[in-house]
Specification:
Blueprint: H1 3-10, H2 13-29, E1 34-38, H3 41-52, H4 55-60, E2 62-66, H5 70-84, E3 90-94, H6 99-102, E4 112-114, H7 120-124, H8 127-138, H9 145-179, E5 194-196, E6 202-204, H10 209-216, H11 226-239, H12 247-265, H13 284-290, H14 293-296, H15 299-310
Parallel strand pairs: 1-2, 1-3, 3-4
Antiparallel strand pairs: 5-6
Helix pairs in contact: 2-5, 3-13, 8-9, 8-12, 9-11, 9-12
Length: 313
């Protein structure tokens, strides 16, 4: 693990201490509650409804705390272990990000679940979520001509987005590996550079968007020769591009495309003759609440929860 990445994680110590102090007060009076720690609020919105359906968690009561990032989450875990040792009823839900590709190992114990995708937003932007959203909030169903038309466009535009973002992924990974510097993803907004048009197609907003965006997040692509980039491209293909695309990019596309779907069908009729007038307004934050996480999470998550709750007794 690079020194700069370690420094980034350690910079979250102040946020971690604040979370830990709240945990201490709660734990002293309710040591049998289930304590779940998350990187961000969207993670809570996504995971909590599924956690709440577990009978053992429901019986004990669920304490939820947002740690404001991976660094703070890991530090909270360290503080709890330093003071209390291993306890059976804490759960940490963490995004994978680039960690697996970069070979970063945090030496985590079985209280951690690390997302199989880049982040929870990556779970949301998928065909299953598309189907759930269009059926529940628009009123179209699998097999209807209008549903199939929108689904085909969703799949094709997901692929188009991945191709557009491939250079961002490769150059970001090169910066991590060669210089240990974490791109400042918070310093720019992908919506400034890409758009989902009124016809549901992903476009560049202007020529030269890629160099501008990379500059905003602190990545200088000119540092890397062609051989280095070709090597990374091959490794990314082998690993799987989709698993390395930042979840915030995917959720941005998903919300924009779903809004396009709502606008496209408004005033039309379903196969059953029902006039469609979807009212839902979807944001990136709301998307994690509107979809059914139980349909999207991998089997490994439920196996993790079963194993963790079995340790409670």
């Amino acid at each position: 693990m690079s020194t700069n990445y370690l420094q980034f994680l350690q910079s979250k110590a102040e946020e971690a201490r604040a979370v830990f102090f709240v945990f201490e007060r709660q734990y002293s009076s309710n040591p049998h509650h289930v304590y779940a720690f998350f990187e961000g609020k969207e993670d809570v919105d996504f995971y909590r409804p599924v956690l709440a359906t577990n009978s053992e968690i429901s019986k004990r009561g669920l304490f939820v705390k947002v740690c404001k990032g991976k660094g703070a989450l890991l530090r909270v875990y360290e503080l709890i272990r330093q003071k209390y040792g291993t306890i059976p009823n804490d759960i940490y839900l963490m995004d994978k990000d680039f960690d697996e590709f970069l070979g970063i190992d945090f030496n985590l114990d079985n209280s951690f679940f690390v997302s199989c995708e880049y982040s929870i937003e990556s779970y949301v932007c998928c065909e299953e979520s598309f189907k759930f959203f269009v059926e529940k909030y628009i009123g179209l169903y699998d097999g209807e001509p209008l549903f199939e038309e929108l689904k085909d466009k969703f799949i094709s535009q997901c692929s188009r987005l991945e191709k557009l973002l491939s250079p961002v992924v490769v150059c970001s990974l090169a910066q991590y590996e060669d210089f240990g510097n974490r791109p400042n993803f918070q310093n720019s907004n992908i919506n400034k550079h890409l758009m989902v048009s009124s016809d549901g197609v992903v476009y560049r907003r202007r020529p030269g968007w890629l160099a501008k965006y990379l500059s905003e997040i602190g990545v200088d692509a000119s540092q890397y020769d062609r051989a280095r980039i070709r090597n990374l491209i091959q490794r990314v293909r082998t690993f799987g591009l989709r698993a390395l695309i930042r979840g915030k990019y995917l959720i941005w596309f998903f919300t924009k495309f779903m809004q396009y779907c709502c606008d496209y069908v408004r005033g039309r009729s379903s196969a059953a003759g029902v006039k469609l007038s979807p009212k839902v307004q979807i944001s990136s934050a709301a998307a994690c609440q509107l979809v059914d996480a139980s349909l999207l999470l991998p089997r490994r998550f439920f196996e993790f929860i079963d194993a963790r709750t079995a340790a409670f007794s």
